[in-house]
Amino acid sequence: MDNKINCKIDNGISVGTAIGKVILIGEHSVVYGKPAIAVPFHAAKVKTTIYGRKGPVGIDCFYHKGPLTDAPRVIDGLTQVIKGIVHSFSEELEDFSISIESTIPPERGMGSSAAVAIATIRGLYDFFGRMLTHEELLKWANMSEKIVHGNPSGIDAAVISREKTLFYIKGEPFMPFEFNLNAYLIVGDTGRKGKTKDAVEGVRKYVETNPRKGKYYIEELERIAMEAKDSIESNDPERLGRLMTEAHIILDRLGVSDDGLNALVSKALDSGALGAKLTGGGKGGCMIALASNKEEADNISKSLLDSGAKNTWISRLGDDLVDK
Ligand code: MEV
Fold this sequence. Notes:
This protein is an alpha+beta fold and 324 residues long. 41% of the residues lie in helices and 26% in strands. It has nine helices and twelve strands. It has helices at 76-88, 112-127, 134-149, 155-162, 196-209, 211-233, 237-253, 259-270, 294-306, and strands at 7-10, 13-25, 36-56, 58-60, 65-67, 94-102, 166-168, 183-189, 275-279, 286-291, 311-318, 321-323. Strand 11 and strand 12 form a beta hairpin. The longest helix is centred in the last third of the chain and has 23 residues, at 211-233. The radius of gyration is 19 Å and the shape is globular. The two termini are 28 Å apart. The relative contact order is 0.17. Residues 23, 27-28, 30-31, 109, 149, 152-153, 155-156, 196, 200, 280-281 line the site of (R)-mevalonate (MEV).
């Protein structure tokens, strides 16, 4: 059962929570069945509160405050999942309200849409007193992700629902992965919304119109992901850093980076990062950099903020989690 840790009922109020995620390596190529490595990102969280209130279902979130029936298209994924779950319980879509608070910046490649869906699914199952299996959680979360992103690999829902580092291959069972790396990760937010759906579609068009080069780039990303796994297992941050920068260059060639992301990646490298790259869908959103110790991570974070990053987070990597 999934939702015992992440939900609690208190006087008719149910709370579901979920964390963010960071893709270390393998975004985009993961859509083509290649491996990717993603880590849970505990520094950013979503909390969905569901409480009984007479009348039509209301929702209060980043994009909308009001009746669920008036919710904008941008939260269609969430709206459809809420309706689908309530329908599957043979309950009426009325007499409750949903409030979503999040510290995961939306549309920045940190898994906000999957985390919002997962926190809300957990909250709804709890509110209606139903047990939630991990399979059901993934089914609903991926339904939302399909509406939001078009053709998702499922990596966001997989890592956010498990809160474990994943060596992820689409359609394959969860692979235990020894995370053994003494290093710090810096996440830098460009402050601009990423465009995952457009970026995934852009890569698809690139691969279709340039089949030889497209195939080569996707296979290079596969090689990099395999080597990255090896470098983490052998605690080799320098090698992982080089691989991250290589991946960024390929992602840029595939058209999913932009000037703002490239500028922050260059700044991180000039400031002593072992490697840096965009993370998630790209075309805006966030980048990541690797540092060998906290002092270097602080320096890199400061340089990124001085160069226009809207926000940064520093996390220690290791023991399969990312901690603030
Ligand atoms: C989005 O977090 C990662 C992408 O690879 C898309 C996906 O895997 O669905 C860009």
